[in-house]
Write a structure and sequence with these properties.
metal-binding; Aminopeptidase; single chain; four-stranded parallel sheet; 24% strand; Deacylase_DtdA_archaea; six-stranded mixed sheet; EC 3.1.1.96; alpha/beta; 7 helices; Gly-tRNA(Ala) deacylase activity
C-alpha cells in the first residue's frame, strides 16, 4: 500500500507541512504548482495526499480537507471539465478527525490561536489521477501558511491517518457522499466529527451536477449511502439527485 505525499516548493504551507513530515516519511517534492500537476507528473500510488495552502477572501485561519475535481464545465483552476479524482471516504474523514483532535490539543494548551477545521467541497485540479486523492490545507493567508504549529498539526494528522489505514485500525461506518450546503460543508463536517459517517465527495448547493459527473461520483468511490442537506439543496437538484440515486439503487437520506 503506497501513499504518495506531494509538496510544492512554490507553496509556503506545503513546505511547512513537508518539513515536519520528512524525517518520518518520504515526500514527493516538486517545483511545479500543485494545481498544475497531472497524472503523468506523479509516481503511481494507492493514495495521493497533497500538502497545500488554502486561500480565501475572508482570510480566516483554517485547516481543511477535500478531494479535488471539477464538478461542472468550469475548470478555471486547472484540470479537465466535469472530471473528479477518485475518493476514499475513510481517508478524508480520518484526516479531518485527526486534524481536529490535534488542533484541539494545541489550542487548549495555548500553542495556537483559534482555527476553523472543516471539509471543503470538491473543487480545483488535479482531476485525472487514478487513485484516491485528497488535499490537506492550511489557510488562509501567509501568516498561517508558515505557522510552525499549523504545519505540525497537519503533519502529525497525516502520519496518524496513514498508520490507521495501513494497520486497518479504524471503525466500520457508513461511507457517504453529501449533497448540498455551502463550500465548507458545515452539516457534513459536523456529522463526520460526531463519528456517524465517513464522508467522501461533498457537492455544494452552488454546483448543479450532471449525470455524467454523478456517475463518476458513484464509480470512483466505495459508497454505502448518499445524504442530502435538505434545506441546503435546490429543489430541482434534489429531484435530479434522488431520481439518479434510486435508478442506481443507492440508499439516500435527508439531513
Amino acid at each position: 500500500m503506497k501513499f504518495l505525499l506531494i509538496a510544492s516548493n512554490k507553496d509556503l504551507a506545503s513546505k511547512n507541512i513537508a518539513n515536519h513530515i520528512k524525517e518520518y516519511f518520504d515526500v514527493f517534492e516538486t517545483d511545479k504548482e500543485l494545481l498544475s500537476l497531472t497524472d503523468k507528473d506523479l509516481e503511481k500510488a494507492d493514495y495521493y495526499i497533497f500538502l497545500s495552502k488554502h486561500r480565501s477572501t475572508a482570510n480566516k485561519p483554517s485547516l481543511t480537507v477535500h478531494t479535488p475535481g471539477n464538478l461542472t464545465e468550469d475548470n478555471s483552476f486547472g484540470g479537465n471539465p466535469k472530471e473528479v479524482c477518485p475518493c476514499d471516504a475513510v481517508l478524508n474523514t480520518l484526516l479531518l478527525k485527526n486534524i481536529y483532535k490535534n488542533y484541539r490539543n494545541y489550542f487548549e494548551s495555548g500553542k495556537i490561536k483559534e482555527f476553523d477545521v472543516s471539509f471543503e467541497v470538491v473543487h480545483h485540479s488535479p482531476t485525472d489521477l487514478k487513485s484516491p486523492t485528497v488535499f490537506v490545507e492550511i489557510g488562509s493567508s501567509e501568516k498561517e501558511w508558515v505557522l510552525k504549529e499549523a504545519g505540525e498539526i497537519i503533519a502529525k494528522s497525516v502520519l496518524e491517518t496513514i498508520d490507521a489505514i495501513k494497520n486497518n485500525e479504524y471503525d466500520k461506518k457508513i461511507r457517504a457522499i453529501g449533497f448540498g450546503g455551502g463550500h465548507y460543508a458545515p452539516k457534513f463536517t459536523k456529522l463526520a466529527l460526531e463519528g456517524k459517517y465517513y464522508f467522501g465527495y461533498l457537492i455544494p448547493k452552488y454546483a448543479s451536477v450532471s449525470e455524467e459527473v454523478l456517475n463518476q461520483l458513484i464509480n470512483k468511490m466505495e459508497l454505502d449511502k448518499a445524504l442530502i442537506d435538505w434545506k441546503g439543496c435546490r429543489g430541482e437538484d434534489k429531484r435530479k439527485y434522488i431520481e439518479f440515486l434510486e435508478k442506481n439503487r443507492i440508499e439516500w437520506e435527508r439531513v
